[in-house]
Design brief:
29% of the residues lie in helices and 24% in strands. The chain is of the alpha+beta class and 517 residues long. The strands form 5 sheets. Strands 1, 2, 9, 10, 11, 12, 13, 14, 15, 16 and 17 form an 11-stranded mixed sheet that branches.
C-alpha cells in the first residue's frame, strides 16, 4: 500500500521568467514515484467521478470537470507538476521569455491530429482565436484576451502579454492548453464538443452522457510507449458510497474523492492512495450581482455560514476549514480566517439593506450538484443557516453536471457550490481579478486587483507570496468565497494500478498510468 501527500507550493516567479522546457525529452519513460517496476502495456483504467463534463470542446475545457477528458483527448501544451511546482513540456517543447512580456512558444515538430491534420502553429492560433468568439461562451476568453500572438513558422509562435506576466506559463497548462483539429472543428461545427478530434494520448470512441465516456489509446501519440493502457473509461457515479463500492468490486480502478472518510477506508482495505491539498476548499462562491452586489449582504451570508455545523453533520471524519490556506503552505496566513458565526450581526446587515431597498425579502438562489446525498444535506443545512434571519430566503437549485457547468460558466447563480480547485495560486487571479478568465461572479475589488497584478509583474517570489496573502485576506473580508471543507483531493486505486499522480483539480495524467498484470 502506498500513501503519499502533495502540498501546494507557490510557483517561483523566477522559474517562470525563462521557462526552457525542452530538457524533458520525449523519449523519457522514467516511472513516476511510487511505482513497482517498469510500466506494462495493456489493460483498462476505469475512473469514476460524481458528474459528467458539459463538453469536450477546447473552448470549454478549462471548466473544472471538463479538464479530465480534455487532457486525455488533446494532451496539453504544457503541464503543471503539483509535486515540484514546476511547468514542464507537453505538446509544446518550450515556452520562454526574457522579460515576462514577449514569449516564444515552440511546438514539437511533426505532430498530427488523429484525422491527419498537422498539429502546428496555425492550429494553435486557430484554437485560441475560437476562444475569443463571444458565441463560444468560453471560460478562457479573458485569458485569450490577455495576450496576442503571431505565427512565426510551422512550429513557432510569438506570444505577447498585454502586461508583464511571469505566471503566463500556467495559462498554457489549463485555460489555453488544449488544441483541437481545425479540420474537424470546421467540419463538425457545434457537434465537435461531442465527438472531438485531438492529438493527445487517447481518442474518444463513445460517450453516453451521464453514464460513461470511453477513450481508446491513440497509436500515433508522440510520446511512445505512452500511453500504457489500451483504454480509459470515465464513469459518472453521483454518490460517493456507490463509487467506493464500485472500486471495491473492481468495476472501477481509479476513484477521486474529497475528505478523509473514503481514503481511511481504502487504506484499511490495503489500497493505494495519493492526496493533494488544492487551493481553497469546498464551499460557496458568491455572486456580486443583484442583492449580493451590496457588501453588507455578502458579509451577512458569511456571518451565517456555520462551518462546524456543516462538517459535524455531513463530513464528521474531516477537518474543519479554519484558514483559507492550510499550515505548511508558503501562503498560509494566521489572520486569513473566516468570520465568527454571528446571527445578530447578520440580522442587522439584512435589516439595513431591506430598509434601503423597499423592505422586501432578500431572496437568493444556491446552485448545487444533484444526485449526491452529502451535497443535498449540505444544501439543506446552508438553507437553514441563512434563513435564521428574518427577511432572507435561500432557494436551492440542484442541477446535473451539464446544467451546473452551464450555470457556473454563465454566472447564472447567487451562491454556487464551489471548490475553487487547482494547485497553482494563479487560480486566484482567474477567479477573483476583475478581468479574471473564470470570474463569472462579477467580483471586483481594487485591493484584490492590485495584489494579484503584483503576482504577475514581480519576479521576486517573496513579493509574489505576500501579494497573494493580501488578496486572500481581502477576498475573505469581502465574502467573495467561503468554504467549510479543506480541498484535499485523493486518488484511490487498487495495488495493481500505478502511475496515478494528481493533476488539475480532479484528474491524473492517464498516459502515465499503467496496470500490473
Amino acid at each position: 500500500m502506498k500513501t503519499r501527500s502533495r502540498i501546494l507550493m507557490a510557483l517561483s516567479a523566477g522559474a517562470a521568467l525563462t521557462l526552457l522546457l525542452s530538457s524533458c525529452s520525449s523519449d523519457s519513460t522514467a516511472a513516476p514515484s511510487g511505482q513497482a517496476g517498469e510500466p506494462q502495456r495493456g489493460g483498462t483504467l476505469t475512473f469514476s467521478y460524481n458528474s459528467d463534463a458539459q463538453s469536450v470542446d477546447p473552448v470549454t475545457c478549462a471548466n473544472g470537470i471538463g479538464l479530465a477528458p480534455c487532457q486525455a483527448v488533446y494532451g496539453a501544451l504544457l503541464y503543471y507538476d503539483i509535486a515540484s511546482s514546476e511547468v514542464s513540456p507537453g505538446m509544446a517543447e518550450s515556452f520562454s521569455s526574457e522579460d515576462g512580456k514577449v514569449w516564444t512558444l515552440a511546438l514539437r515538430p511533426g505532430l498530427t491530429f488523429t484525422d491527419g491534420t498537422p498539429f502546428n502553429a496555425e492550429a494553435v492560433a486557430f484554437n485560441w482565436q475560437r476562444i475569443l468568439d463571444p458565441k463560444m461562451l468560453s471560460p478562457s476568453m479573458a485569458a485569450a484576451k490577455s495576450i496576442s500572438w503571431s505565427v512565426v513558422d510551422e512550429t513557432t509562435l510569438t506570444v505577447t502579454a498585454t502586461e508583464v506576466n511571469h505566471q503566463l506559463p500556467f495559462m498554457l497548462t489549463e485555460s489555453l492548453a488544449f488544441v483541437g483539429s481545425p479540420t474537424a472543428i470546421t467540419q463538425k461545427g457545434a457537434d465537435f464538443g461531442n465527438s472531438p478530434v485531438g492529438a493527445g494520448p487517447f481518442v474518444m470512441t463513445s460517450w453516453a452522457r451521464g453514464t460513461e465516456m470511453v477513450l481508446d489509446r491513440n497509436p500515433g501519440y508522440w510520446d511512445q510507449p505512452r500511453p500504457y493502457v489500451d483504454r480509459v473509461v470515465v464513469k459518472t457515479i453521483p454518490a460517493d458510497d456507490q463509487r467506493f463500492n464500485a472500486l471495491q468490486s473492481g468495476d472501477v480502478n481509479v476513484m477521486m474523492v474529497s475528505g478523509a472518510k473514503y481514503p481511511s477506508r481504502a487504506k484499511n482495505a490495503g489500497m493505494d492512495l495519493v492526496s493533494t491539498n488544492l487551493l481553497g476548499g469546498q464551499g460557496v462562491r458568491l455572486s456580486s450581482r443583484g442583492a449580493l452586489a451590496d457588501p453588507g449582504v455578502r458579509r451577512a451570508v458569511g456571518k451565517l455560514i456555520d462551518n462546524d455545523q456543516i462538517m459535524a453533520a455531513v463530513f464528521p471524519d474531516d477537518a474543519v476549514a479554519d484558514h483559507f490556506i492550510p499550515e505548511g503552505n508558503p501562503l498560509h496566513d494566521e489572520t486569513a480566517v473566516w468570520p465568527d458565526n454571528d446571527v445578530a450581526g447578520a440580522q442587522k446587515l439584512i435589516d439595513e439593506y431591506r430598509a434601503r431597498n423597499g423592505g422586501g425579502d432578500v431572496v437568493l438562489s444556491y446552485v448545487t450538484t444533484a444526485g449526491s446525498p452529502s451535497l443535498t444535506q449540505v444544501a439543506e443545512l446552508l438553507q437553514a443557516q441563512l434563513e435564521q434571519v428574518d427577511g432572507l430566503k435561500l432557494e436551492v437549485k440542484p442541477l446535473d453536471g451539464a446544467g451546473f457547468s452551464s450555470a457556473l460558466i454563465s454566472g447564472n447563480y447567487d451562491l454556487i457550490l464551489n471548490s475553487l480547485g487547482g494547485a497553482h495560486p494563479d487560480n486566484l487571479y482567474k477567479v477573483f481579478h476583475t478581468k479574471g478568465s473564470s470570474n463569472t461572479a462579477g467580483y471586483s475589488d481594487p485591493i484584490v486587483d492590485q495584489a494579484l497584478e503584483t503576482t504577475h509583474s514581480s519576479n521576486d517570489p517573496t513579493v509574489v507570496n505576500e501579494a497573494y496573502k493580501t488578496a486572500i485576506r481581502q477576498i475573505i473580508d469581502t465574502t467573495a468565497y467561503h468554504f467549510w471543507r479543506p480541498s484535499v483531493s485523493t486518488l484511490i486505486t487498487p495495488t495493481s494500478v500505478h502511475g496515478v499522480e494528481p493533476a488539475y483539480q480532479y484528474w491524473f495524467r492517464p498516459e502515465l498510468a499503467w496496470v500490473q498484470k
